[in-house]
Amino acid sequence: MNVKNKKQRLIFFLPVFIQGGASESIIKLSKFLINHNYSILLISIGKNVHKNYLKKIGCNIIELNTNRALFSILALRKIIKTEMVKNYSKTVLISNINYANVISLISSFKLKGVKTILTERSSLSELSIYEGFFDFFKKKTIFFLAKYFYKFSDLVITNSNFEKRFIKKNFNIKNIQCIYPASILKVEKEKYNINKKINNIKKIIYVGRLSKEKGVITILRALAIIKNKLDFKLEIYGDGKEKKSILEFIRSNNLQNDIVFYGYIKNKKKIFSNKDLFINASWFEGLPNALVQSINNNIFPICSKSPGGNLEVIKYGQLGLSFKTNNSYDLAKKIMLFFKKKIKLNQSKRVKHMENFTQKKSNQRYLKILKNLN
Question: pTM value?
Fold first, then answer.
């Protein structure tokens, strides 16, 4: 006689499992859930750069060998059906980001016995930003399919209240919750980030992927505008396909002596210690971990007013400044304003607000949802 395994089988589907906020959030959540008697399967399209670590903590890994996400539908459906007949108490498919959510819902369509949770780790508003006809057609198709299929999910989870309101309004979905990502392990309550200067150089940092939508060129344009007014050093932590274009812009604007690239660094203390200013210039966001981490490490942030969670993180201007998205002149003005007025973070507000982004709070909310998922 087959005895049902008391464990739930959680299938996470993230097509591109690279360095970045979405992968980081799933890894933290997976480790927590394994320690609470859940079984984890992580599916990516192509290489999962975190595979060795994930296997070490007890996750199962499948890397689909397909060229495009669309071609993964049949393979994903086959995997789901295989997992459903195993002796788990429940099978839950947890998908991440819009196009993957659509693929997951199509792959699991009319499969009785599997629960589907969709998570929006970016903003669906990104589908209104496109380059050329093909990109326009692709994104409009994804939005149309999302609007139709999302209602078949058991739950939609967003990582910002902005996105929750957007989906409720545009998709008419009621079963939706907002859970902030596990951006920080704990709240840093000490003012340890006191910049011990040996000169007057202002230390500015950007942390994140080097892709067009992250707006790194906007940051560089703003710094080029104020180059003769401010003695600064911009430290860039991250890598990506736009690095070549960024380097070309730096050379053409004679910023070589003002910019330093460090690539990906795991040691957050090294990134955030002894810095003056953090800048996020994204065109759209989910809820950026690095923005949260900057405030937690007592570094003043300036961020774009992009769709997504940016303004929630800076508490709508109480814990940072914001500028018009993709507007380097407005950003330049805000940088100069910050240094001229020597604006400081309100410590009591900072500490209280950061409690919303801890691993403990985020993980416990996911755990509660999974336990009550019927």
Answer: 0.90
